[in-house]
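Marked as duplicate of an earlier ticket. Keeping the data here for the record.
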Amino acid sequence: MWHDARLVAGKDLRLEVRSGVAVNQLAPFALLVLVLFAFALDPDRGVLARATPGLYWIAVLFSAVIAVERTFSLESADGVRDGLRLAGLEPGGVFLGKFGALAVQLLALEVVLGVGVVLFYDRSLGGWPLLVATLVTATAAIAAAGTLYGVLASGLRVRETLLPLLLLPALAPVLIAATRAVEAALDGVSSEGWPWCSLLAVFAIVYLAIGTLAFGPLMEES
């Protein structure tokens, strides 16, 4: 399974590197979302500063939906999914590979957005242990849920509009927990953020377990 996961992750990452979509489209889109939030809340900089963690994760979630939809739409158009079935790869390995590739893309995007927060919102980053742990656990939860719901919606003609309706409500608890954890890290009260980070780890484990077990049947149905 781990060998298959490495193969699938390598395939997805090479595709993204060669296409350049993440650099040329996804990252600018996420930064534009941050800029628009800054314009909307500019009259009261205090509100903008307090809302920074939530705005950051909203930008991440919007970008994650686009990345998931693009990955599975490409596979549907090019018949890659049929190739994965015929290749005899372990379904759990395919899920973990796609999860890993998406997680790498999201982590890179989150670093870019972190720089954007410093530049556009004039916020200094602190509480690094909690901040890093939150990024890792929240990204794992988002990538696992995105991969699971991506394959669920991929076989439908209305997947472009259905995927956000399925994925965003499922990730609402992740958004809340990640926002609270980052807020605690930025405010210098990391002790209040670690329980939220632990909750994120639980979400990530649950989504990973469900995805590993259910990905095969969902891929066959799609």
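See parent ticket for discussion. The chain has a mean pLDDT of 84.
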